[in-house]
Amino acid sequence: MLKSVKVRDYMTSDLVTFTADMDLFRAIDRLLTHQISGAPVLDEHGNLIGLLSEGDCLKGILAGSYFEEVGGTVASVMTVVVETIDADADIVKAAEHFIRMRRRRLPVVDEGRLVGQISRRDILRAMQKYNEHAAPK
């Protein structure tokens, strides 16, 4: 049953991360280079302090162009209210959260510490694998 499949089994643990003081265009370059739509923002101690998404970057660029001041830092545009999911949560809970909250990704924590990130694509991968092994043929 899918409720026995844990987030930790399908999360990405080799994360691209940002710092709050990173130049916005450098962060955009990393998003594009790694072909990802967003990533966690960490402080100097490795604590999760925000998320930076493509949408955040677009808002920052548009706001900056309005004032003819394109650029800035990750901190100036990142989302600071961060929803997370526990590494031991089941995949179904993660899928429900993605649908209900219309999110693309969630940082994964274990005892309050960032250990990875799970995306909608990761959930689909888990469900595909489950279907291959559990569905009647």
Automatic annotation (TrEMBL):
What sections of the sequence does the record tag as coiled-coil? none
Using the record's annotation, list all stretches that form the CBS domain.
11-69, 78-135
Keyword terms, alphabetized: CBS domain
Which SUPFAM superfamilies does its entry note? CBS-domain pair
Gene3D superfamilies noted in UniProt: CBS-domain (3.10.580.10)
Stored InterPro entries:
CBS_bac (IPR044729), CBS_dom (IPR000644), CBS_dom_sf (IPR046342), Diverse_CBS-Domain (IPR051257)
| Protein name per UniProt | CBS domain-containing protein
From which source organism is this entry? marine sediment metagenome
